[in-house]
Request: fold
Amino acid sequence: MVEKCECLECIKADAYEQQINNRRGIIADNLEDNLEGKPDDFLGGKLFARQNVIIYDRPNGNIIEMKKAGDEIGTIYSYVLRDGSVWWNIDGKNYSGFVLHQKGIFDDIALQNSLRENAAKKEELIKSAAEKRISENDNPLYNFLPDLGGHVKAIIIGVIVLVVGSLLLKLFK
Reply:
């Protein structure tokens, strides 16, 4: 087995070759990992490198960062479809950039775990909001006033204003 050179010049040359092949439409099976779904399904997920991953300033742009196997790449917050390829728009710790999706370069298990964690957090937020709403509805005063018609509320407020006003007039006479 021949080892690949990992110097910056070779990495840039490989990236350039990937870009050329991409433009020719050779990489067409981009989402054929163990990842199932549309690109929208992966928004908010964290990407981890399974092998060397190059981060660009824009799709087919300049290299801004290089990640090695096991490194966290960042969180997917958008994507671009270009020349039949998916470019993940990611937010990393010290950068924001684009990563070309290629079969096998991402840790799909870590991504799926990240998406499950996000879904669990979302469920927890929904559940706590529902519990808060239920507890607010248990308060009798909270239920009493909204149930009154608009006219009844206006009459009650008017009576309160008249009573307070008459008391103030008596005090200043």
User: Anything to note?
Assistant: The longest helix spans residues 108-137.
